[in-house]
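Incident log, structure service

09:12 report received: a user says their structure output differs between two submissions of the same chain.
09:20 pulled the input from the user's history:
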Amino acid sequence: MVGPPRIWSGCTLVAVIPAESTTATRRHTTLALRAIGLALIALLCLAPSGLAADDLFYSNHNYSWPTPASGTVKRIPQAGPTSSNVLSISNATFAGVAVNGTHVYTAVRDDIMAPGGADAIARATLDGSDPQATYLTPCGGGVFRTGSLAITATHVYYLCMTGPNVTSVGRADITGATPSPDNSWMPAPNASMMDIAVNATHLYYSVSGVSGKIGRIALDPSASAQEVAVANVTDLALSPTHVYWSVDSTLRGGLSAPVVERMALDLSGSISTFAVQGTGNTSPTAIAVSDDYVFWVTTGGGSSDQGIRRAPISDGAASSFLVSPSGTIEDIAVRL
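09:34 re-ran on a clean worker, output below:
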């Protein structure tokens, strides 16, 4: 006989626990299984309540000249565009954002209206607790491309620069009590890298401009890069099967509106148009992918065109998700 699932603090224990038996052997087995079940409960219920694995996070900032900017990271459940603050820092501009299973990370730019600070990477737990305004100072305090962050469960990745050129891909081990950065982890596979994304095997990157590219390189500093030509690409994001990117129609001829394009993760086969971003949008700036949707940021055009749009991965039919948000959205990410 099998008993019902046991409920603990809103979590359902996915384990089969036999009902009590009168025999000593079965009683001992039952007690052992219940002990295992309690351990599973502890693991399943560690995540902060109310947080879904596919929540969308975005970084933005508000300017009101001459008042210094205030940077904020907000979280939106995919069920509806009601946002909540996760991290806020005064006198700063937030740029790239990345999220793993425990924390949200954002690149912080020193505000030109309140100079004296330093570019850094900040982080907070997903429910907004334990904020750290300067969790990591990448590139040894030198220049890094603040619009580009990528994350795994164990490392955060960033781009270090000298002048206008990217010179190296840095990464920091985030598994310990304090981050352990390696600012020269990999020589830059392309000096004009703009945005990065990472999965279990490869680092992907975009190169903007008429001679733009989508590239990838194995997570091995001695590896060689693979690139395909993609004109006027902006940001990129990954699904388990494809790499997606935004294209600016004002720079690439023949397009009436910006589009989202995609191709297979191994960069083989043809490039296809996944979705049209919407008429009037002139400056796509960020893109993210969840299990079910592709999200992208739109600016320019009328006020109703500014915000975040999305399309189901199944059909690419675009619709508005967040319209006319307060402040300027810099980047978006979905929790891993």
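09:41 both user submissions now match this output. Likely a transient worker issue. Closing.
09:42 reviewer note: Confidence is low (pLDDT under 50) at residues 1-49, 112-116. Residues 281 and 305 are 6 Å apart (CA to CA).
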